[in-house]
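I am still getting used to backbone structure tokens and would like to learn alongside you. Label the sequence line and the structure token line clearly, so we can match residues to local backbone shapes. Go ahead whenever you are ready, and we will take it from there:
>
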Amino acid sequence: MTSIDRAAVEQALTRYQDPYLKTDLLSAGCLKSLQINDGRVSAELQLGYAAGNIINGIEQMLTVAVEDVPGVESADIKVSWAVQAAPTQGTVASLANVKNIIAVSSGKGGVGKSTTSVNLALALAAEGARVGVLDADIYGPSMGLMLGVPSGTKPQVRDEKWFVPPQAHGVQVMTMAFLADDKTPMAWRGPMVSGALLQLLTQTAWDDLDYLVVDMPPGTGDIQLTLAQKAPVTGSVIVTTPQDIALLDARKGIEMFHKVNIPVLGVVENMAVHICSNCGHAEHLFGEGGGVRLAEEYGVELLGSMPLSMMIREQADGGKPTVIAEPETQISLLYQDMARHIAARIAARASQSVVPQIHISDD
């Protein structure tokens, strides 16, 4: 029987280049164990980001690669994933039962930030992660409507202290709309709004979340500064359109997060192109390539470029966003890809503070 060269097995495992970690899984520290027993090879690898929809495919590719190694009769490759808490800014205390907070922000309104937030949260949940959404737009909360939560829903109260967040489509959600009449404007000054945000964040009984997606109001005002100074934010996502005025405001948002030491995980470009439903003609109504230029200017990743689509708007307004309504469409797959890229950026940050342990044996 031909002896199996361990180096050859490891080399075979490196053939798969993870498109989200942007390296092979050995270099990324994902190999947890490798055992060689006669002609049988078994290995366990663990990704650091939510990847429930792709791990079976990764297992198959790695199995084929290892079984091509001379002397290998069979390979048993297991791939799993587990989310760890990544470092946050400064000395802000961690939030109970929440591993990572993702702030979704924009420099101006009307660029599709809330739509991005809700579909991102649902895409992460579709990968198997435990996800929550916090609607930080105190003046104009919309998450309840977008997630199809019935009007008039109120959170249960636990121990006269904690709000128990309602769930919608498998996602925990908390919004000011649950605590106030939807026809009553929040005519509050900055300190009151900041206080309300902190209460929603810290007095909600989040249930063991891998990711908490925070839908920020537009701009760089009180809410943004309060979150940056008082909440342990893992990273931010900037949403823009290709329009020059939107890019100008998006730059201000990126600069703000840099100043408060919150990393920008990437840029999402909405309304990048409109495809005519009658003739199929593509037209860049708001300009072209703005998201790419913004990402290149700041050295961050362009996470996705989304079309101007009536379907996205109608499904969000109807309480069943695209990722849930039509999970197999191209737009939903773009949101899933975006979610994995964001989760992988968080995993890369988390791995910087964790030394992986690899168990290798020859039996």
